[in-house]
Amino acid sequence: MTTQGEPPSLTLDALGKKCPIPIIMLADRVRDVAVGQTIEVLADDPAAKTDVPAWCLLKSHEFVRAVDLPTGWSLLVRRSY
Amino acid sequence: MPASGGGYFDAASAEPLHPSAREALLAALDDGWADPARLHREGRRARLLLDQARESVAAELGCRPDEVSFASSGTQAVHLAVLGAVQARQSASRGAGHLVASAVEHSAVLNAADWLHRVTGSEVSITGVDALGRADLAEFGAAARRDRTLLACLQSANHEVGTIQPVAAAAAECQEARVPLLVDAGASAGRLPAPTGWSLLTASARKWGGPAGVGVLAVRRSARWREPFPADDREGRRVPGFPNVPEILAAAASLTAMGRERVALDAALRALSARIRAAVPERVPDAVVHGDPEDRLPHIVTFSCLYVDGEALVTELDRAGFSVSSGSACVADTRQPSHVLAAMGVLTHGNVRVSLPRGARDDAVTAFLDALPPIVARIRQTVAAGTTGDTSAEALA
Lengths: 81, 397
Prior knowledge:
The structure holds 2 protein chains of 2 kinds.
Chain A: E1 10-14, H1 21-29, E2 38-43, H2 46-59, E3 62-68, E4 73-78
Parallel strand pairs in A: 1-2
Antiparallel strand pairs in A: 2-4, 3-4
Chain B: H1 19-31, H2 41-61, E1 68-71, H3 74-89, E2 98-102, H4 107-120, E3 123-127, H5 137-144, E4 149-153, H6 167-177, E5 181-184, E6 200-204, E7 215-219, H7 245-283, E8 287-290, E9 300-305, H8 310-319, H9 339-344, E10 351-355, H10 362-388, H11 390-396
Parallel strand pairs in B: 2-3, 2-4, 4-5, 5-6
Antiparallel strand pairs in B: 1-7, 6-7, 8-9, 9-10
Helix pairs in contact in B: 1-7, 2-7, 3-4, 5-6, 7-10, 8-10, 10-11
């Protein structure tokens, strides 16, 4: 969606889903993109804005950026391994 | 279930009434009911008890009795401290001014700051913390040194993750900047030696085993403070309304007792919380413990379990006989995750705060550590089953 640079390889629509569902969706699907590629999570649960970067730290993936959407955020993650 | 109860682990919300507090409360109900402002014998008797309570609280806090006022809650004490300190220093030249608070302050501090911003136009700087929840001193100091800064606020220790804040260093920064420092000692009062270097200090009795409904507002004689609400002669004109002498006396008795027991209690609770800190990540896959592992309150341990719904976790633990709180969004009235965990940048879902009361038992902690892993595993199975079909995921969410 609102990425600068290359578009994400995969976008997960977690809008309307409460944590931890967006994080579970991300964990389930991160291996569906190639190492070095990005996966975008669209979420509007306020916890997701903290928990997607926190998950990246825990799982050693790269959190690329968060962009505000009219409702929620676009959260971009790069698969590191 | 713990063999014979003992699963109450929410002391940071409310510590059970200390036996000293109970004893003092019962005695004071008979002796301390009259108006302490009156000159008759009943009034003088109430006054004597109130003065005794003030002296013993001042002794524990390391300040003068006339610097201590009793409020009707810790929250009221914080509101009076913030509003009174800021409004005393607002002026034509300073305007509405600027105030500073760390991002992990209690919501009472942040709400008071936000209120001043909305009502008087004060500027508010919220300064950051590291991943352990410790205030960034450089950022805090730089914000305090800004022009027109009227007040800086830093807690003694964090109420959610237990990390002790660098109050002495922050006080030195504030003194250099000639800015008063409010220390919210709510989480640490009665549990750690009193902080020093503050201009204003607040605390709440129910967190040290006193009754609910007693807060402490201490204002140094050197600090400027002006009543932010219609004035009243009570409590040095700092807190409006008739003081609850029996509960205040009970609060003071408990604080004194906690001070006497502190070294032994600290050692006992620190050993138990250290056990939990070590065992949770060993026994629960994908669980992280928050806060500083060493420089922390003795009784608080907070952790988050990945892929777990915090509300389900609290409910299941309650069913198993363990009372804990959670900073997860689904447990909050506001549906917002804990601002403390968010500021630290750590996982907010699947969150549990264990806070051990005085007398917490080793066997209860053992039972908790045995009960936790299967509960987490069960919730994970349910949540994972829910996400495979969209409709059930939504039902679960």
